[in-house]
Design goal:
Length: 116
């Protein structure tokens, strides 16, 4: 069983189970990570071994931040993909559920930019 900290502001917006979503015309809709076939299949595999187990979907992302003139860094974030997308993508000064992992600096290598 997953124990979420009492202080977890978005614990009521976390989905642990597969939900197949359908649009108005009955067509399959993919709005959340928990709507996807891979999530359904991965959850089934986990539950073969741990019946009360869940798949924990993590999202890695980056966001370029301009420091000054021509200097910038890319903030690297980790977020819980099981948080409802509407809430996860909402910006409250920073994304809900995002945890800053660190910074990546891009360097010029010939005609291409790459992580340094």
């Amino acid at each position: 069983m997953i124990e979420l900290p009492y202080c977890c502001r978005f614990r009521d917006h976390i989905k642990f189970d597969f939900e197949e979503a359908r649009g108005e015309e009955g067509k399959r809709v993919y709005n959340e990570i928990t709507d996807c076939d891979w999530f359904r299949d991965a959850s089934a595999e986990v539950r073969k071994t741990v019946p009360e187990g869940h798949v924990l979907a993590l999202v890695l992302s980056s966001d370029e931040t301009l420091l000054h003139a021509k200097k910038s860094v890319h903030n690297m974030y980790l977020s819980l993909g099981l948080v409802d997308r509407q809430l996860r993508m909402k910006d409250f000064g920073r994304k809900v559920g995002d945890f800053l992992l660190g910074f990546a600096h891009l360097v010029q290598c010939g005609s291409r930019r790459s992580l340094g």
